[in-house]
Amino acid sequence: MKKNYLTTIFISLTLIFITFTLICYPHVALQGSKRGLNIWWEIVFPSLLPFFILSDLLICFGIVNFIGVLLEPLMKPLFKVPGVGGFVWAMGMASGFPAGAKISTNLYKDGELTKVEAERLISFTNSSNPLFIFAAVSVGFFNNRHLGILFALSHYISNAIVGLIMRFYHSNETMKYRHTRGQHKENRLIRAFRVLHMKRTNEKRPVGKILGDAIVTSIQTLLMIGGFIITFSVLNKLLFEIGFITFFSHFIEGIFSFFSFHKDLAPPFVSGLFEITLGSQLISEVTQSSLLQQVMITSVLLGFGGLSIHAQVASIISEAGLRFKPYFFGRIIQAILSPILIVIFWRLLNFNELSSEHIHSTIPTFNFFEDTIPHMLSNSLSNYGPIFTLISLYVYIIILLIKILKKKKEPQA
């Protein structure tokens, strides 16, 4: 009982303090809101919405079940999850945070995963997408296109290792029994088609209703994600302004000095614990440290994900009653593994010869990399992302209005 009272007091005092700080520094709150809104408006919404809608449609029409039957011989022995986990992993890797959590939660609600299987999947299927790693971090922040390979190798391999470790999470639980007797003798491709057909015929909603529901639920999730991004962007700015990040950085400096890292990396690292984009950018601007140290600390942030993403994942999985601890444990493991892999690949690929590209000069960020796919994709999101977001929100409002009008007519009929 006393613990509950203390929790209530702590939450109340924290909220009062944040409110008071917002009143004292309105300009900082405005800057943070603009920055968070721009990230969501230009990049997050247009890059995630197609994947969210597509994943919902693939689940409804049984294509995920089809892929699951084919991938079960790989996913079951390695990660102790059903074959649909391969689809979740691929979609999470392609679209980035927090797609893996959303798709895993949907499959759990749909009965394709047990609770433990869903929690295992969520722990290692959330990752940064290639566009963010190659275009934003390696080229946009570090001015070094070769670093994208290094970041990607360490990030995705460490993610896979997390999956291998998490197979032991609740290892005593048997996997959900999905097939009837004698199916093991059936050709796997034929069985996959039969499962796909069964799933499609069991879906009673018309195609238009399925598409409309997929759009509505996807946009609702992205609106929630946008709220978290803006909130943590404002919080990050406020913590900088009141000196909290500088104060906390003094403790991190002691840890960094123990591992021979430059102390100037501590403040951006603390900032990155809240929001990885800003943290990665600030780390790339620390000219006093070596490039290897900057890359290692950035890889830690990419592996951990930042509290903003943690809050997004927690919000998504809490609706289905899934536990957050496995995901958080997986992020800690990856944050430890990523810099170790950075050092290994740095030496194997001889990245010292490429470090001369890391130049903090007046050369525009993307000039030397302007003809590449990551840059073109990044430019497209910046130029057309807001337009796509606006159109999608208009469609969302129209679908909601149609649903409201239909509900009003139903009682009269």
UniProtKB/TrEMBL annotation:
<keyword id="KW-0812">Transmembrane</keyword>
<keyword id="KW-0472">Membrane</keyword>
<feature type="transmembrane region" description="Helical">
    <location>
        <begin position="121"/>
        <end position="142"/>
    </location>
</feature>
<feature type="transmembrane region" description="Helical">
    <location>
        <begin position="328"/>
        <end position="349"/>
    </location>
</feature>
<feature type="domain" description="Nucleoside transporter/FeoB GTPase Gate">
    <location>
        <begin position="222"/>
        <end position="322"/>
    </location>
</feature>
<feature type="transmembrane region" description="Helical">
    <location>
        <begin position="238"/>
        <end position="258"/>
    </location>
</feature>
<feature type="transmembrane region" description="Helical">
    <location>
        <begin position="83"/>
        <end position="101"/>
    </location>
</feature>
<feature type="domain" description="Nucleoside transporter/FeoB GTPase Gate">
    <location>
        <begin position="44"/>
        <end position="141"/>
    </location>
</feature>
<dbReference type="InterPro" id="IPR014226">
    <property type="entry name" value="Spore_IM_YlbJ"/>
</dbReference>
<feature type="transmembrane region" description="Helical">
    <location>
        <begin position="48"/>
        <end position="71"/>
    </location>
</feature>
<dbReference type="InterPro" id="IPR011642">
    <property type="entry name" value="Gate_dom"/>
</dbReference>
<dbReference type="Pfam" id="PF07670">
    <property type="entry name" value="Gate"/>
</dbReference>
<keyword id="KW-1133">Transmembrane helix</keyword>
<feature type="transmembrane region" description="Helical">
    <location>
        <begin position="295"/>
        <end position="316"/>
    </location>
</feature>
<feature type="transmembrane region" description="Helical">
    <location>
        <begin position="210"/>
        <end position="232"/>
    </location>
</feature>
<feature type="transmembrane region" description="Helical">
    <location>
        <begin position="6"/>
        <end position="28"/>
    </location>
</feature>
<feature type="transmembrane region" description="Helical">
    <location>
        <begin position="148"/>
        <end position="169"/>
    </location>
</feature>
<feature type="transmembrane region" description="Helical">
    <location>
        <begin position="384"/>
        <end position="405"/>
    </location>
</feature>
<protein>
    <submittedName>
        <fullName>Sporulation integral membrane protein YlbJ</fullName>
    </submittedName>
</protein>
